[in-house]
């Protein structure tokens, strides 16, 4: 961003001096960033293979599977963006899901060495620490002169309520280190003579970001576009913007060319490939930010531990604002204080930051305003945009994530200015109390974790290969879905331990089949999985007739299932399941099972 570390004047950005003191500050920042990352994820470090994130074990199982499948696909010459291991016989288009292909490839050796759950934990922890360090680099080397100011801003962004909430298993959204690199890459294009090299680098970075967090890349592009438009239209910056525009456009053209070549196949698969869909299947009203949530406190924070949190998010993973009233007030005070002391050029930057934050905050409220859990009926701007391609695939509440970096930059500017021109002792105390009151309640607490059932010995010992032909179909009961992710955990284990492939008739993925042609989670239900789901949820054996037996066996033949497996303990990601009711229902449909290792097994003869 075109801003200055010497806040009294609007000079071009210069890096903070790389002195011995500065290097000590960098080392301290590294230690703090890593320590906080380990602190937040500490519940999983106790035993990565046996513990899961309590509020989102389903997404954790999905990302573990993506890591195992991606490594397997690359080492076996398979397509990493489309698979027939799930959703037999149609397969799954991973390009319209969150494929994290770059992570899967880069960390494939680690996945094979320590397994998908431990690799998932390593990446999650590195994401948080790297986000803090990347923002620290951008702030300290380009935006402010004080390493302390850079550290305050960077740590706030990396461990803001939204980032900590998405640390509940989202390897895509916690990859916040991509954002400062993308921002720096865009602004580097304006430098004379840098457009070609800068465009090449940025094009590669865009391709990487698309693979890891396509939705985050989209939001970053929108935010940078809004910021640049407001900044360039400001009277104090018009001449500078006009002079930089040719190089910027040339660099963006190179970026588009490089990224387009690298992403040609993924983009085709995303928009025109098999098993594609439009939208997400998630209600944009439910998954919009409650206006009151901006002043609320998040659950995984000191304030949450004191009982000050709320239930204004659709789930604990989507606490995308939750800044608390003190921080909102501090942000307004910082903005006004900086504005009064800024020259015209700095005011252009502050205006662009403020407009960007307001635009994304309002858009995050979704198509209809909600206040403190109640819909007001007031229509909002997002309702006009919701049917646009790409936009309709984004959850509006996540647009609030753009606000946190703006706040982080304002906090960094404020600390930098206070250090450059120290106020009186009383003012220092007032500012200190203000920062403490705003930030201390938001200090993160560790993610909630709980024990999950181990992968059965039937899978770990490779016994399944005696009952399923190579590439054949096995299904646990209930079938694998987001709420019952066992099957993908088993498949991830088999792939990462080089046992071979078995396929699953369902799975946790987004695919076609939702209302109005939109996407849905998993395949449309059939008779067999509906009966199993009913039994597991209610603990009651449904009425089984000759018709339901016939339809259930037809479903198994349609999928080509060779083995139906029930472990002693089924993991329900959202609710407990009744294993006894599942076994009795499957017995009524398929006959008596046999006991093999630590599972109940029904073999399905070929038609």
TrEMBL record:
InterPro entries named in the record: DUF6311
- Spell out where the chain crosses the membrane: 27-45, 94-114, 120-139, 148-165, 171-188, 195-212, 218-236, 248-268, 321-338, 350-368, 388-415, 427-448
Q: Which domain of life is it from?
A: Bacteria
Record keywords: Membrane, Transmembrane, Transmembrane helix
Residue ranges occupied by any DUF6311 domain in the UniProt entry:
79-375
Name it.
DUF2079 domain-containing protein
Q: Which organism is it from?
A: Micromonospora antibiotica
């Amino acid at each position: 961003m075109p801003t200055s570390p010497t806040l009294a004047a609007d000079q071009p950005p210069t890096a903070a001096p790389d002195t011995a003191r500065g290097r000590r500050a960098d080392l301290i920042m590294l230690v703090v960033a890593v320590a906080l990352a380990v602190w937040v994820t500490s519940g999983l470090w106790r035993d990565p293979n046996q513990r899961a994130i309590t509020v989102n074990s389903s997404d954790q199982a999905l990302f573990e599977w993506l890591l195992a499948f991606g490594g397997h696909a690359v080492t076996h010459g398979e397509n990493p963006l489309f698979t027939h291991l799930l959703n037999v016989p149609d397969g799954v288009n991973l390009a319209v899901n969150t494929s994290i292909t770059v992570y899967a490839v880069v960390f494939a050796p680690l996945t094979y060495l320590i397994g998908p759950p431990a690799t998932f934990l390593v990446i999650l922890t590195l994401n948080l620490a790297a986000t803090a360090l990347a923002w620290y680099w951008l702030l300290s080397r380009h935006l402010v002169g004080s390493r302390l100011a850079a550290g305050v801003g960077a740590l706030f962004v990396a461990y803001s309520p939204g980032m900590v909430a998405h640390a509940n298993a989202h390897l895509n959204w916690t990859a916040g280190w991509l954002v400062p690199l993308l921002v720096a890459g865009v602004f580097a294009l304006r430098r004379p003579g840098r457009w070609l090299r800068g465009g090449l680098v940025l094009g590669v970075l865009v391709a990487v970001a698309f693979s890891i967090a396509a939705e985050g890349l989209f939001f970053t592009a929108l935010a940078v576009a809004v910021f640049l438009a407001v900044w360039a239209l400001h009277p104090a910056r018009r001449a500078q913007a006009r002079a930089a525009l040719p190089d910027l456009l040339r660099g963006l053209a190179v970026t588009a060319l490089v990224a387009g070549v690298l992403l040609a196949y993924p983009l085709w698969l995303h928009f025109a490939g098999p098993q594609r869909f439009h939208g997400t299947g998630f209600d944009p009203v439910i998954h919009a930010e409650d206006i009151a949530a901006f002043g609320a406190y998040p659950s995984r924070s000191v304030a949450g531990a004191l009982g000050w949190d709320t239930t204004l998010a659709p789930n604990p993973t989507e606490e995308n604002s939750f800044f608390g009233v003190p921080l909102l007030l501090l942000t307004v005070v910082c903005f006004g204080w900086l504005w009064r002391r800024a020259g015209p050029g700095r005011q252009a930057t502050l205006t662009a930051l403020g407009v960007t934050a307001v635009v994304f905050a309002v858009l995050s409220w979704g198509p209809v305003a909600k206040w403190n859990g109640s819909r007001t009926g007031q229509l909002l701007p997002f309702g006009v945009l919701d049917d646009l391609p790409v936009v309709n695939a984004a959850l509006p509440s996540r647009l609030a994530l753009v606000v946190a970096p703006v706040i982080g930059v304002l906090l960094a500017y404020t600390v930098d200015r206070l250090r450059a021109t120290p106020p009186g002792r009383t003012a220092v105390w007032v500012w200190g109390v203000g920062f403490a009151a705003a930030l201390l309640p938001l200090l993160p607490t560790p993610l909630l974790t709980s024990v999950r059932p181990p992968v059965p010995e039937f899978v770990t010992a490779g016994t399944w290969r005696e009952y399923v032909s190579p590439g054949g179909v096995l299904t646990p009961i209930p079938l694998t879905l987001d709420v019952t992710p066992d099957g993908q955990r088993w498949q991830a284990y088999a792939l990462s331990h080089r046992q071979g492939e078995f396929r699953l008739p369902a799975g946790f993925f987004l695919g076609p089949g939702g209302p109005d042609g939109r996407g849905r989670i998993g395949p449309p239900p059939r008779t067999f999985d509906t009966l199993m789901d009913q039994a597991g949820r209610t603990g009651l054996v449904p009425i089984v007739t000759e018709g339901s037996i016939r339809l259930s066996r037809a479903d198994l033949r349609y999928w080509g299932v060779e083995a139906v497996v029930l472990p002693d303990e089924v993991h329900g990601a959202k609710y407990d399941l009744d294993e006894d009711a599942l076994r009795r229902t499957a017995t009524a449909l398929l006959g008596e099972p046999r006991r093999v290792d630590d599972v109940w097994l029904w073999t399905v003869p070929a038609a």
